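Retro notes, structure queue

What went well: the backlog is down to a handful. What didn't: a couple of records were mislabeled last round, so from now on we paste the full input next to the output in the thread. Example, using ATP-dependent protease from Streptomyces viridosporus T7A:
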Amino acid sequence: MTTVRLPLFPLNTVLFPGLVLPLNVFEERYRAMMRELLKTSEDEPRRFAVVAIRDGHEVAPSAPGLPDPTAVPDRGAAAGFGTDPLRAFHKVGCVADAATIRERPDGTFEVLATGTTRVRLLSVDASGPYLTAELEPVAEEPGDGAGALAEGVLRAFRQYQKRLAGARERSLATGADLPDEPGVVSYLVAAAMMLDTPTRQRLLQAPDTASRLRDELKLLRTETAVIRSLPSLPASDLTRGPTSLN
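Corresponding output:
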């Protein structure tokens, strides 16, 4: 299978294909990445890979502090990820296409990217100003019964959304507002649910769409039952998450 080498942006979150990722880029290693991406012609995709951090820190320590005020801060492309960065990351991530990269007067960047395709992490290179990775594409197979499962997931998601928002049925997204393509449904629901990173990662790396939808159906039923006993919470945005601070 053909592999590709791309800049690597580790985050404390999971990016799904089709979902929007806003980034506030202030660390020098990622600023260097964005400056390099800006050299790419506007006619070409400005791509980088996003992987969820398994063991490490999204933002490297930048100053001495407790418990050792004399400690030298971590620096370099792999800062915060140990001596073997490959072990610090989950092995399946997502390629991001940066539609907008805007440099601010202070040299930081505002970035808006969209997840495109899943990739598997094969190796990580920390020799440059930012991490790069060798990646192989992960095919998206439909699996058995994906269409029927998607319908069931959408019904369960509407109930989940209703409980989460504490809103009336008519105030929620209607069937016309939600997709019906099983793969799109599976990623949209995975991103919109209130889940921890390991669970989101499990959904991202599901072997096929049907398996992901089947897992989501169980999660939706469980979470909806739990939310019944909790105070009302605001509805989650279906297409983007909170801005990452790097």
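Agreed that this is the format going forward. Reviewer comment attached to the example: The beta strands are 4-11, 20-25, 47-52, 92-103, 109-125, 132-137.
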